[in-house]
Every structure is written in structure tokens, then in C-alpha cells.
Design goal:
This protein is 67% helix and 0% strand. The chain contains 8 helices and no strands. Helix 5 crosses helix 6.
């Protein structure tokens, strides 16, 4: 805050709680002469416990130097961070450029090369991961399609088996004549009574069935 040691010592020699207006005024004048602007003076007065009312500030403004050496603040340069270079497989021009940058004497260039190499490695890993994911999804889709086709074939086979079983049952029941078991039993009884040879089970010959139908048609005509 102070650019002159004499002024600093003069300000420090004042008591923190001055008991007279003269001491307050002297401290305020020293503070004003050591200020860079009105804002700086107000902060200093307030820090020292000196009056900061408008009248005091107006009276002290002429004491502020017209020019002053303002403190210069410098921001320290960030420290260089060495990132290990991961060797990657690129096209020759890109790899040559990265090799040149990695061996550059300037730390900023080397660090940029390291960051680019790390980014490229991350992108390569992400590309390979997404490609593997797509391949897995395609395999799952193909497996689902194969499963659906197999299930459809199984349903078709089951439906055909039911149809075949029903047809077989019809053959066994009606012996291929479209007649019920009761009708076939009646025909067998009639055939034996009329001198025909017929088995107790199995198919009844077409000749015997026609003879049975003819006899019953004639009987029906006579009855009518």
C-alpha cells in the first residue's frame, strides 16, 4: 500500500485509537497520500478505523497523488504436466507429426502431443467397443430369428401330427366307410344271418356293405 518507508513508519507510529482530532486528521492525510484512488483511500481509512464520512473524503481527495505506481499482479504460468505417450497405430503422416511433437524442446508442444495421443487412444477404444456391441446385437437378432423359425416349424409339425392322428382315428372308427361302429356291428350281424363270412373286428368288405344296403332298400320299398 505504501511506496515510501517514511510514510509507512509515520502511519504505524499513530495509536490505533487516537484520542484527538489532530491525530485522526494526520493519519487520514498520510493515508490519502499513500492511496492510488478514492476507492483505495476509502478501504485504507476503514481498515485503520479512520473517518470515512463524505466531508472527510472530499477534503482528502486533493492529497491523492495524480499518478501512482499501481501494484502489478502476475499470474504464475501453469506447471507443465508430463503425460506418458501411448504408442498408437496411425497413418505415417500423423504418426510422424506426433513423434516430432513428442520430441519437441517446448513443453507446451510435448504436452499437446501427449493429450492428442491420449484422446486418439480413447477414441480408438470407444470405436472398438461400439463395434463389438453392434456385432453382439446382430448375433442376438439372428438367434431370435432362428428361434422364431424353429418355433414355427414345431407348431407346424404338431398341427400335422394332430391331423394325422384324427385321420387315423377316423379310419379305425369307421373302417374307411364313413359308418359308425354301431352300423358296422349291425352289418356284421346281418351278414352272418344271411350266410356271409365276416370277421368280428376290422374292415367290412364293400360287397357285404352293398348287399346290406340293397336288402334294406328293398325292405323299405315293400314296407312303403
Amino acid at each position: 500500500m505504501f511506496t515510501d518507508w517514511a510514510q509507512a513508519l509515520e502511519a504505524e507510529s499513530l495509536p490505533l485509537d487516537p484520542t484527538s482530532a489532530q491525530q485522526l486528521a494526520a493519519a487520514a492525510r498520510v493515508t490519502a497520500r499513500s492511496s492510488h484512488d478514492k476507492h483505495d483511500m476509502t478501504l485504507l481509512l476503514d481498515a485503520l478505523g479512520l473517518p470515512t464520512d463524505p466531508d472527510t473524503l472530499t477534503a482528502l481527495l486533493p492529497l491523492i497523488p495524480e499518478t501512482g505506481d499501481k501494484p502489478v499482479t502476475t499470474t504464475p504460468a501453469p506447471e507443465a504436466i508430463d503425460v506418458p505417450v501411448v504408442p498408437l497405430t496411425f497413418s505415417n503422416p500423423v504418426q510422424e507429426l506426433l513423434d516430432w511433437a513428442a520430441a519437441h524442446p517446448a513443453a507446451a508442444v510435448r504436452n499437446r502431443a501427449n493429450r492428442i495421443t491420449a484422446d486418439l487412444a480413447e477414441l480408438t477404444e470407444r470405436r472398438d467397443t461400439e463395434a463389438a456391441q453392434r456385432e453382439a446385437e446382430e448375433k442376438v437378432a439372428r438367434a431370435k430369428a432362428e428361434l422364431e423359425r424353429a418355433q414355427e416349424e414345431l407348431r407346424t409339425v404338431k398341427a400335422g401330427t394332430r391331423t394325422t392322428a384324427a385321420a387315423t382315428a377316423g379310419i379305425r372308427t369307421g373302417s374307411g366307410s364313413g359308418r359308425s361302429r354301431e352300423e358296422l356291428a349291425t352289418i356284421r350281424s346281418w351278414a352272418r344271418e344271411n350266410g356271409y363270412q365276416v370277421a368280428d373286428q376290422g374292415m367290412v368288405s364293400k360287397r357285404i356293405q352293398e348287399a346290406y344296403d340293397t336288402a334294406h332298400q328293398a325292405t323299405a320299398r315293400k314296407a312303403g
